[in-house]
Structures are given as structure tokens and as C-alpha cells.
Amino acid sequence: MDPIKMVDLKTQYNFIKDEIAVGMQEVLNSTSFINGPVVQEFQKDLESYLDVKHVIPCASGTDALQIALMGLKLQPGDEVITADFTFAATVEVISLLKLKPILVDVNPNTFNIDPLAIEKAINPKTKAIIPVHLFGQVADMEQILALAKKHNLFVVEDNAQGIGADYTFSNGTIAKTGTLGHVSATSFFPSKNLGAYGDGGAIFTNDDDLAQFIRGIVNHGMYKRYYHDEIGVNSRLDAIQAAVLKVKLKYLDFYNERRKKAGLHYTKLLKDHSKILTPFIKLNCNSHVFHQYTLRILNSDRDALVNHLNINQIPCGVYYPVPLHKQKAYLNPKLDSSAFPVTNQLVKEVISLPMHSELHSDQIEYICNTILGFFN
Question: N or C: which terminal CB in the chain sees fewer CB atoms within 10 Å?
């Protein structure tokens, strides 16, 4: 059995290195390193894949979230509702723009933002909702979009972990994550399902005017060189990263299917144990692309299991050990921790197992047997 890695980018690279080398060499030959032809080609390829009108590449997923919010022209003090159980970048950009983050609890099955909690948090100051497709599982977008329409709110999808997932509406309509809200942000951090070999991100929207506005924001507020019509930022996807992503986009569905296969294998081996709660899977599993495979460990010592796995050369992660409402940077004395019962429980229970498109059955079986052995 090969050594187990949390993410195996090297093996993935070895399968596509010839294509990557050609793409990189074309960029080097062209010397068009910023906004070169390959960036435009990748943009168009991703627009076609997602069936979205506009993809605006940028320098990182965090930038993508910030720029998406800037594009909505929200004002300081406006409130933005998002999940308490997620990575800090989501609330970080809200705070940087002098908006007010309103944290709400999540669904205990999907780990995604709870629409009932969203509805309770809406007030006249609320201007937007940021659902996060956490761990690759699509949020309950139909309910979220209905709430946004009812209260005239923007929906900004944080699609950093969910690219390639499908959402099926109650009428049977299917759409990709990142195309459901008013605007979406994604990350191309190397470990993502569609990862670059450095930082990168993109904003998606079907709104022509919003797309045009955002294109200026990412480039110093310029629509014509040296004419600054808006206050913008410098956030552009470099051509080397675009060349990598252009190759890897062709394999995204294959990578996601491999992740799903691994996830379903994990679940088959672990689902019957009373102290293990495996990830929620909806319908044919197309709504989950398993950026992470995350268990809940019930009525047991999660941290002792982490140590047990590490002793047995099995990497794992705890995403996330501290709720946002308890993070030092985002402490709010007016918040009552009892308002987040699900999140407060999840941070004690969650553990993410190795997950990538290069996992083999024997590795998954070894991991699962080691976990089950811990409880016996």
C-alpha cells in the first residue's frame, strides 16, 4: 500500500504533467504573464462548463469574495448573514469592507447554513446572504433563494469548496453551484477540487452590469487604461496559473467522480457504527463533490481518534475546531453562544479523513479498519 496523504497533488500532477508542461511553455514563449490569451481561454472554458454568462478570474478565493461584495455596492453597517461553521475568509471579507457579519447556526446533517436560522436573523439592515457549500455539499439553495427574493436580498455563493457540484430544484431543474445566486466566488487554492499550482480565484455571475463593474474592480477600477472610474484592487489570475487550470478543468468531472467513489466507499465501511455519523448524501450524490470527507464522532473522544490515526500514519484534519463566534478577531459581546447549539457540538465531533481523486481502495479500507479498531 502506498503512503496515505491527506491530499495527493504529486500523483495527480504525474498523470497530467506533459499537458501542464506544454501549457506553461506556451505562456513562457508568449511572455504574456498578466491577462494573456490563456487567461481568456480558461475564462471561456469555465463559463461553458458552468453554463454561466460571466467568469471574472482574480488572484485568490478570498479576493473573489471581497470583490463580489464590493460589486454589490453595500454600505458600511449593512448586515450580511453567513454561517458560523466555516472558514474565516467568509466573515473576514465582510468585516474588511466595514459591513456587519451576522452569524447563524447550521444544519446538523449537511453542516450548511440553516435557512430557518437565516429567516430569524433578517431585519431591515440585512442586505445579503452568503451560503457556503461546505466540504463540497450544496447548501439548501431553493429555500435560501426564496428568502432572498421575499426580502429583496443579494445571495453571494461561497463556492470555494463546491465547484462542479449540481443542485437539483424541486421542479427538476439542475444547475451548477456558483450559478445559483446573484454572484459567486470560488478558490483555486491547490488542494481544491479544481486547484492551481499557487493562489487563484474567480467570480461568477449572470448579471451583465455586475460583471462589467467587477471587471473594473479587479483591475484598479480601470475600464480604460489609466482612467480610474472606481476604487478597485489589484487582483488578477496570472497566466501560468490559468494554463494549469485550463488543463485541470478538463478533468474536473473525473476528479469529482473519483472523490464521490472514495466517499461512498468510506460510507459503506463506516455507516453502521453507532459512534460514527457519515456525511449526508442526497439523491444520487451529485450534490456533494467531497472536497472533504467529514465524519461526526458521537459520544467518544474525537481528539483521541486523531492521535490514534496519526500514530498509524493516517493524516486527518479538524475543520473547524473553533466556531467563528468564538474567534478572537470576531468576538461580539452581544452574541450568546447558546444561539449556536449545532456549531458548538460539531466543533467537538468533526474529523476529516484523507480525500482526493488518487485514493485507492486498499488505503480507504486501511483507514476505516483503523478507525473501527479504535472503538473496539
Answer: C
Report yes or no on 40 lying in a domain: yes
Cβ(159)–Cβ(130) below 8 Å: no
Residues near 113 by Cβ (< 8 Å), separated by ≥ 6?
Answer: 81, 82, 83, 104, 106, 107, 129, 131, 132, 139, 140, 144
Q: Is 221 exposed, middle or buried (0-12, 13-18, 19+ CB in 10 A)?
A: middle
Q: 172 and 294: one domain?
A: no
Same domain, 273 and 192: no
Give 148-187 pLDDT, tens digit per residue: 999 999 999 999 999 999 999 999 999 999 999 999 999 9
Domain boundary among 249, 277, 303: 249
Taking the whole predicted model, whether its pTM rises above 0.90 is answered as: yes
Question: Which residues lie across from 137 on neighbouring strands?
Answer: 288
Domain that holds residue 293: 252-375
Please give the Cα distance from 72 to 127 (Å, whole number).
10
Q: Give the model confidence (pLDDT) of 276-319 as tens digits.
A: 999 998 877 789 999 999 999 999 999 999 999 999 999 999 99
In this structure, is residue 279 part of a structural domain?
yes
Q: Do residue 201 and residue 289 come from a single domain?
A: no
Mean pLDDT of 243-258: 98
How far is residue 117's CA from residue 105's CA, in Å, rounded to a whole number?
Answer: 6
Instruction: Report whether 191 contacts 354 (CB < 8 A).
Output: no
**Number of other residues whose CB lies within 10 A of the CB of residue 2:** 11
